[in-house]
User: Fold this.
Amino acid sequence: MKLTCLILLFTVVAINVAFADADQTDEPWMLMTGYSTTHPGLGKTREHVETVDTILRYRRKIKDTGRDWYRGSHDFLIELPVSYLIKPDDGQIFGLNFLASWTLKTSQKYRPYFFVGGGPVYTEANVPGVGANLCGNYQAGLGLSYKTKKDRSFVLEYRFHHISNAGMKQPNVPLNSSKVLIGISISF
Assistant:
C-alpha cells in the first residue's frame, strides 16, 4: 500500500512538472472550510456522521484549453483536508487528495469549475463499520470562484465524498457524504 501511494505520488508530480504551464497568474493557494454530512441508505452507508472541514488547497495550472464559451484550463489540485467529527464522536480525519480540475474561463469575475480525484485518509475516530484507521477516498464536485478587484478569489463548492477501506479489513461500511465549502485565496 505504501509503495503504491509513493508510485502514484511520484507519477502525479512528474506529470505536473513535465506539462505545467509557466504562466501561473491566478492565486495557487486556497483555504476552505465547511460542513459535511453522510447519507445513510446511500449505497451501504449506515452511520450518520457530521463533520466540520478545513482544507488547504494548492492549484497548479496544467494547460489552457478550448475557445469561446468552453474556454478554460486543466488544473492539478493537491489538498490537505482535516475533518473534525461533531457527530457521533469527537475525532479527526486527515487526508491527502490529488484532484484533476477543469475551470471554465467564460468571465473575468465568475469561474465555474469541476473536479474529481481522491487519495488516502487516516482516522482514529470510532465510527462503527469503518474497520480501519487507514482508508481511501474518492470525490467529485463543482464550484464557483469569484475574483475581486484586489486579485483575491472567493469560492463556493459542493462535493460528493466517499470513504472506505477498499475491503482490506472487515467491516468495510463506507461513508458517503455531501460537503459544502466556502474558501478564500491566500498568499504565502
In short: The domain at 2-186 is CATH 2.40.160.20 (Porin). The radius of gyration is 17 Å.
